[in-house]
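Internal tracking record. Fields below are filled automatically when a chain is submitted to the structure queue. Please do not edit lines marked as system-generated. If the sequence contains nonstandard residues, flag them in the REMARKS field before resubmitting.
Queue: standard
Priority: normal
Entity type: single polypeptide chain
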Amino acid sequence: PGAPLPGFTHTFTHFKLAIEPVVISVRGFRSEVRGNDQFNWYDINAATAIGLPRPVQKLLQALDRQIELLQ
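SYSTEM-GENERATED OUTPUT FOLLOWS
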């Protein structure tokens, strides 16, 4: 199983989104994975610069903090 990150709620105009993220380990990761027409890679610290929605920014910040704790 994965390691849960703290859950949080984001309130939109007409509904609330409950987010319960989980960090998982992936075996067999290929280092040559690159961005293409469907996917892009971004620096985790550039979330505000590229205009990601606030809930995604919060999730990436929490992930970044967890990565720092593991190093």
